[in-house]
Amino acid sequence: ITVTEKICQYINACINSGNYEELNLMNIAEKFFLSPCHLSKKFKKEVGIGIKEYINASSNRMPPHRRAKAS
Description:
Layout (H helix, E strand, L loop, with lengths): L2 H15 L7 H7 L4 H12 L3 H10 L3 H7 L1
């Protein structure tokens, strides 16, 4: 499993648990011991979209009743 795949899993786990406070570039980069710039470029290259777009797209896939609880 690649670092980017681990980051995607982490983002999805945070969304599923409603832990949105952790979901920003600085926190994710710190958790995975990467610089924010490197993480951003690597993520976009491997996934095809930026981290913020990935987070928004992933959270929009959450059922509406879960999104309301997470807010």
